[in-house]
Amino acid sequence: MADKQYKLTFCDGSGCLKNHAREFRQLFEEELRRHQIQQNVQIHLSGCLGMCTKGPILIVNPGYILYGNLRSEDAPEIVQEHLINGKPVSRLIIQEDHLYNRFFRIFGDSEFFGRQMRIALRNCGVIDPEKIDDYLAMRGYEALAKVLTEMTPQQVIEEVKKSGLRGRGGAGFPTGLKWEYTAKQSDPEKYVICNADEGDPGAFMDRSAIEGDPHTVLEGMIIGGYAIGSRQGIIYIRAEYPLAVQRLKKAIEDARREGFLGERILGTDFSFDIRICLGAGAFVCGEETALIHSIEGARGMPRPRPPYPSVSGLFGKPTLINNVETWANIPVIIIDGADWFSRIGTATSKGTKVFALAGKVRNTGLVEVPMGTTLRDIIFGIGGGIPNGKKFKAVQTGGPSGGCLPEKYLDTQIDYESLAKAGSIMGSGGMIVIDEDSCMVRMARFFVEFTQDESCGKCTPCREGTKRMLEILTRITRGQGKPGDIEKLERLGTMIQKASLCGLGQSAPNPVLSTIRNFREEYEEHIHQKKCRAHECTALLSFVVQDNCVGCGACKRVCPVNAVSGNRKEKHSINPNLCIKCGQCYDACKFNAIAKV
Amino acid sequence: MSRLITITINDKPYQVEPNQTIMQAADKLGFHIPRLCYHPKLSIEGACRVCIVEVEGMKNYVASCAFPVSDGMKIRTNTQALRTARRDIIELILDNHPQDCHTCERDGNCELQRLAASMGIRARHFEGERKRYEKDLSSEAVIRDPEKCILCGRCVRMCSEIQQVHNLTQAHRGFHTVVMPAYNMPMGESVCTACGQCINVCPTAAFLEKNYTQELFEKLNDPNLVKVVQFAPSVRAAIGEAFGLEPGLNMEGQLIASLRKLGFDYVFDTQFAADLTIMEEASEFLERLQSGGVLPMITSCSSAWMKCLEQFYPDLIPNVSTCKSPMSMQGAVTKTYFAKKKKIDPRKILSVAVMCCTAKKYEAARPELMFDGMRGVDIVVTTREAAWMIKSAGIDLVNIQPEEPDHPLGISSGAGAIFGATGGVMEAAIRTAYELYTGETLVDIEVEAVRGLKGIKEGSIVMDGKEIRVAVAHGLGNACRLLERVRQDPSRYHFIEIMGCPGGCVGGGGQPYAQINSIPLDDENLRKRAQALYDLDKAKTIRRSHDNPDVQKLYKEFLQSPLSPVSHQYLHTHYKAKTPVGIIPRNERTLSGDSK
User: Fold this and answer.
1) With respect to CATH, is domain A6-95 assigned 3.30.1360.20?
2) Which residues in chain B have their CB less than 8 angstroms from residue A278's CB?
3) Of A1, A144, B326, B369, which has the fewest CB atoms closer than 10 Å, so is most exposed?
4) Is 50 exceeded by the pLDDT of residue A322?
5) Closest chain A C-alpha to B595 CA, distance in angstroms
C-alpha cells in the first residue's frame, strides 16, 4: 500500500469516549470524505493515553502534533488548515508541546537520547533538511511571523535578554546584551553574521545543526536582523563543509521563494537577505574580528578590541555576530518563551548546550543537555562509560582551547563559570574522554601543535610562544626533557594567556597548564625518570619479552633492525640499544609475551 | 572642549582628555610605555604586545596603544609581572632573530636592540629553532631580509595605508609567518616602487637599501677614474642627524668638504640640475599651455612616483613631463658638456649621486635614461650610506671647514634648493614660468599655498590674466587620491607636482634613521629639514632658476635652448606602461569567498 501522507491516531480510551471522542472522529471522517482526501490519511485508534482531562485527543503524524480539548467544530479546521494546507492549528495543540518535544517523542526511549533535551537540534533527524515544508510543519518560521506581526524590535531584544541565552561559540557573552548594543548604534547600515567556521578539531555540532536543520539558523538570523535593524545577513561557513553549504544554499533559495527572505518579508516593511561566504581553511577565522576581515577580503587576522563589532564591525558598520547554535535557539525562545527557556539550566547559564562527545567512551556523538548536567551524567550516563574495562583518567572540554579535568571534577555541573573555575572552558562544546592509556603530556603537545600551526602569526606571544611551548613538549615526549622545563612551560603559558591579542593565543596554553596542574606527576616522570605511564610516548618505552614467551620467533622475524635474539623454543630477548620502538614485535606476538614498559 | 576624565596610573590620579588610548594619555604625562609596532601615522596593530599594561577589572593584559581610557580606569604600567612578561616577549623575538648585531648595518641604531637593552635581557630561556630565509637582493633599491623581521607590520601598513601600493603582506601562519610581496615574488619583479618608506619605518634591518659603499670605496681608489659626485638638496638638510646633530641643520659646506676628502675629484650640486630641470620643465609646461598640449602636466622627478604611475595610472602617461629628474639631468650633462669642457673621456668618469632617495638607485639603472651607451649616474648612494662612508673614512663632518662646490655644475639658485620640500618643485617652476610667460618679475616668490605638510595642496596663480591652477601631493597615497580627481575632471588643474615620499624628498627612503628620542617620519623633523632648505633659499642672492649664470652658460655653450633637440636628446625621456604583477587592480576587487 502506498505511504499515506498523514497518520492520525484517535484516542479511543474511556476518558475520551466520555468526551464524545467517537462523535468527533465520525465528524472528522466525514470532513475527510467531503474534501476527498480520505485515501491520503491512515487512521489508527489507540488506548487511553492518560491525558484524560484534555480529551478528546488526536495525534497527527508526521510531526507528532498532539491535539486536545477537541470539539466537533474543530474537525473542519484541522482538516482544512493542517491536513490540506499543511499548517497545524496552534490553538488546539496542547500546551505541553514545546518545540523540543517532537524529537523526544520519537527518540526518547533510547538510552542515548532519553536523557537529552534537544532544543538547538530539535529537528535534526526528524525532518528532511532539504524540504522547507518539513520545517514549516514543525512550526518553522512561526517565530518569525510572530516577531514581525506582534513584536517590536525592542520587545524581541527584551525577550532574548530575559531568556538568559549566552553565546554558544565559546565566549558565553549574554546574547541579548550583544543584540541591544548593536541595536543602539545609529548607523542605518548594519550586518548580521552567523559564525559557522567551527574550527575546533573534532567539533561537529554546527555542521550537524546546519546539515540537519538549516532553516532554524536562517530564521534566527532574520529575527536578529529585525531586532537590530539590519538588512543583510552573511553566513561565514568553512569550505570544508560542502554538504552543509549545499543545504544552506537550498534553504536560502526555498526561503526566498516562500517569502521568508528578500523584500517585504511576509508582507511587512521588513526586508532581509542572507548570503554565504566560504572560509578558506584557517582556524583563526573563527575569531570574530578575523572572520570579519576575511569577509572583507583581507587576511584573516584579529584586531584589538575595543572597538567591538557591535559598534564597528564588517566594513566598519555595527555588526551582530553569533554562533550557529546561538541562532538555532532563537526561534525556540520566541515560540516557547523566555520564561520557559530561563527555567532550564543553572543560575548563570540558561538553556541547553550541544556537546560533541568523543574519545574513550562507549557512545560518541552529539549530546544536547540542559546546562547544569554533570560531567558524570554525560560521560557515564549518556555516554555509557569507558569501554574495555579501562579507567577514566580525564575529560578534555572546549577543544584545543580547553583544559583537561581529572576525576575529582566529574560532578561539576556544567556551565560557563563552573568549567572556568575548574580550569577549563566550555568552548564550542568539544568533550573528549581520556582513559588510563592516554598520555597527558602527549595530549597537551598535540593541542599546542594545532594552535601553533593555526596561529595567524600577528602577535608575538602566540606566534613565538606556542612554538617554544611545542618545542619543550616535544623534547619531553622524546625523553629529552630537562629540569626546569615544567617551570618554563608555566611561565610561557601564563604570559601567552595574558598577553595574546585574541582568544586563540589566550586559550592556547590551557591544555598545557591544566595538565601540568592536574597531572604534574606525569610530566615529572617523563622528565626525570624518562617514563611514560600511559605507554604512549614511544621514545620512553622499552619493549621487554616476558616469561611466557614460547620462543616461536615471530618477533625476531619481523624486527627491522635485528634487535631480537633467541633460540627456538627458548625465551627471546630484545636489545634495548638497537630497538627503534617501532612496535612490530608487540603486534606480531600471539602470546602477549612482549610488554611495553 | 571635552570634559576631562580621571584615570589612575601606578596609583596616582591624573586628569586626561577622553577619546584617546592609554598610550597617548601616558605619553602626554611623561610615562613612556615601551612599544614596537605602534606608529602614530599608521593604523593601530596591537601585534607586538610589548606595550601591554594592567587595567583593573580586565582579566588579561591590554595593549595600551589600542585600549581607550575611560573615567575611573586604574592602570599599572610597570608591575613585576608586566616587566617579566615584556621581557619574555622581547626575548621571544630575539630567539627568532639572527644573533649578528656586530655585523648588522643597524648595529647601534636598531629599535629592537634598544628595547632588548632596556629590558635587561641577560639570559635566554626559550631558545629553539630559528627561521631561515634567503635575502631578497633582486631590487635595485630595497633589499629584504626576512630573518631580521620581527613582524611588527609597520612596513605592511606603510606600504598599504600611506603609500597605497599594497606590495607587502604577512603570509602563511604560525612560525612560518613572513612579510613578503604576493606569491613571494622577488621585490624587483613586484609592484614595489622602491620608495624605501619600508626602510624608514622598519625597526630592524629587515629592509635596507641596496648597499654600494664597498664598490664605491673600491672605485674611489681607482686612479684611472675621474670621480664626480652630486648630492641632493635634502641630503644637506638631514645628513647632520646621522652625526648626532639636531634635525634642520644645513650641512652643505661640510658635506662638500667631506666628499672631497673622501676622494672625489669634482663635487657638484644636484641643485644646479634642479635649476636646469626648471628651465626645461617650465618651458615644456608653457608650450603645452599655449599650444593645447595635454594638461594637467605632472612632474616626473620622483622615481618611485614614476613607477607607481606606470603601473597603476598608465592612462596618465601623456600628462607626465618628459623631463628627466635633476639627478639624471646632472648625470647627462656631466658626461657630455662637462666631459667635453675638461677634455675627459666620459667613459672614464665615475658619476656618483648622494641621494635622500632609494628609488634613485632604480632610476639610475633604467635603460631609457641611457645615452651614447652610458648611464648618466653610475652609482647612487643614500644619505645613510654616505654618512657611513664619511665616518668609516675617519672624516669629521661636524667640525670640518665648509667648502664651495665646483664649477661648472655646482652653483644653484634658491629655487633649486627648495626642491627637497613638498611643493618646492612647484614653487620653483612658478617662479620661472611666470617670468617666462609674462616677461615680468614675480615679486612674491614664496608661494605659501604649496608649502607645508598637508597631503594634497591646491593653489592658483594668475599669469597675464590667465588663472593657472596647481596642485601638490606628497606620499604615493595622496598622489593616487589626487590622480583620481584628475581622472574625474582633467580640467581641474593645469600643473601638478608629485613627490612619492611623505614630506617630499626630505622624508625620502634614504634619509638617516630617526634618532633615539624621535620616531620615523616625525612631522617636526620633516618640517625642520624643509625649513633648512627654505632658509637656504632666503639666504641666496639668486633665487630663480633662470637667473643661475652657470645654467645660462650651459645653454649658451651646449644645449642652445630649452626643449632644443640637444636638450631632448640628453635631458628628456619617455615612459612605458608596466603591468602590475600579483596585485588585483583596484576596480576589479570584490569581496572574498563569495559563493554564487
Assistant:
1) no
2) 593, 595
3) A1
4) yes
5) 6
